[in-house]
Write a structure and sequence with these properties.
The protein contains two helices and two strands. The chain is an alpha+beta fold and about 70 residues long. It comes from Streptomyces enissocaesilis.
Length: about 70
């Protein structure tokens, strides 16, 4: 499964750092260089929408390598 087809979590399951683009959306590690955008998470009722990112490891192969 590639990063582009991996299911993103629901907006209510995204932690603050992930919503701010500081942490990987899948493994939770702090992002540094090489982070890749993997889409947007939205919650229409609450009016939330934010771009989420993955670390190079999760973004490249679509698998989490643990927090």
């Amino acid at each position: 499964m590639s990063a582009s087809t991996r299911q993103l979590p629901a907006a209510e399951d995204v932690r603050f750092g992930q919503a701010r683009g500081w942490d990987c959306i899948w493994c939770g590690r702090r992002l540094t260089s090489g982070a890749v955008s993997v889409g947007r998470v939205s919650e229409e009722r609450a009016g939330l929408s934010f771009e989420v990112f993955a670390c190079p490891g999760c973004g490249k192969n679509g698998t989490s390598h643990g927090a």
